[in-house]
Amino acid sequence: MATATARELAVRRGIRLEGITVGWMAAEAVLAIGAGIAAGSVLLAAFGFDSLIELLSGAVLLWRLTIEAKGAAIERVERLEARTTRVSAALLILLCGFVVVTSVAGLVTGLKAEVSVLGIFVAVSAVIAMPLLAAAKSRANRIVDSASLRADIAETITCAYMAGVTLAGVALSAVPALWWTQYVAAFALLIWLIPETREALTAASDSPSKE
């Protein structure tokens, strides 16, 4: 069992990390979606949408952790945890749906990712930074033990994966016969994402609903 001091330090660390997440994702969403529209790339647009979901998740977690850091009663923290867990589960469902819809649309229409220097820069940055951010959140959550933070970590890892898929898609778009691999790779994300979503839904259903 973590001591009160260790938990307070972990919560404060979580607040800093979620603050970084919110700032990063706001910039990433604007740049990726803008690059996607400019290049006519569904994959870049999907990456930007994933960033929007991560932004919402980070904002919700920042709110929840800040309330605890201010010394709110444990009952209120538990109610907030239940609420943020449900929000995180809903965002994961939305992310799964978006991956499916955009991948099917891309395969059916034969859309090919166009080269975008800005998109490549944003994706490379995410591939490097997101695993480090997820690892830092995981260390904090070993003490905080928050189901909503676990879901947020899943979304952070998803962002890194989507960035990698985006880079691969942009690279493979240079080979006409391999244009479809970017969408197959996006589908492969569901192998990992669906169990995480199921876990978040289970945690949300087990959470007390009393306000």
What is the CATH topology assignment? Alpha-lytic protease prodomain-like
Instruction: Provide the succession of SSEs.
Output: HHHHHH
β-sheet strand percentage? under 5%
Specify the biggest β-sheet.
Answer: none
What is the count of structural domains? 1
Contiguous helical run count: 6
Residues in helix, % = over 70%
Q: Give the uncertain stretches in residue-range form.
A: none
Radius of gyration: 18 Å
Mean pLDDT: 83
Tell me the number of strands: 0
Shape: elongated
How far is the first residue's CA from the last residue's CA?
A: 27 Å
What is the highest CATH level, the class?
Mainly Alpha
CATH architecture: Up-down Bundle
Structural class: mainly alpha
Structural summary, described in words:
With 211 residues, the chain is an all-alpha fold. It has a single domain, classed as Alpha-lytic protease prodomain-like (Up-down Bundle), CATH 1.20.1510. The chain contains 6 helices and no strands. It has helices at 4-39, 42-69, 74-109, 117-144, 147-172, 181-206. Helix 3 (74-109) runs antiparallel to helix 6. It is elongated, with a radius of gyration of 18 Å. The two termini are 27 Å apart. The mean pLDDT is 83.
